[in-house]
Amino acid sequence: MAAMDVFVGRLDPEMCVVTAAADGERAGCLVGFSSQCSLEPVRFVVWLSEVNRTYRVARSAEFLAVHLLARDRRETAEVFGGQTGDRVDKFRQVRWREGYGGAAVLEDAEAWFVGRVVSRADGGDHVGFVLDPVEWGGRDPSGGPLLRLADARAIEPGHPVD
């Protein structure tokens, strides 16, 4: 793995918050593994850790919401990355609304979309949820810089790390 660190250590992707709602439960987490994965049709994949409560709720969800945060929204990143939904209701600490299909949409996101889960892929200790966007929104694209991995490195994970 040390050899792979040479490659992975150079990456600094945008972070996003993924929220899931199913069976009367809501969950959300800070995600560093995500990407557009198809042009036609447009598809996006988010990778959720199997030890995360968001993953457990997402398994039953038909829709997930994906949010990009501005760098100055670090407090939101800390809520979703540094706390576990097993102990706290993260949604009491942020502004949100119900979106398409009951998805939880964060009001302070720079950009967001709700996607229908069309497939799942095993990726080791994470599962990829491939999403078909069905609703989206956001602020003026000329806004400030987005939150990146380097901005979030100091956030202690809210769930156990293997």
TrEMBL record:
Gene3D superfamilies assigned: Electron Transport, Fmn-binding Protein, Chain A (2.30.110.10)
Keywords for the protein's UniProt record, in alphabetical order: Oxidoreductase
SUPFAM superfamilies reported for this sequence: FMN-binding split barrel (SSF50475)
InterPro entries: Flavin_Rdtase-like_dom, NADH-dep_flavin_reductase, Split_barrel_FMN-bd
Pfam families listed in its UniProt record: Flavin_Reduct
Keyword Oxidoreductase: yes
Keyword Oxidoreductase among UniProt keywords: yes
Every Flavin reductase like domain range: 8-155
Protein's recorded name: Flavin reductase family protein
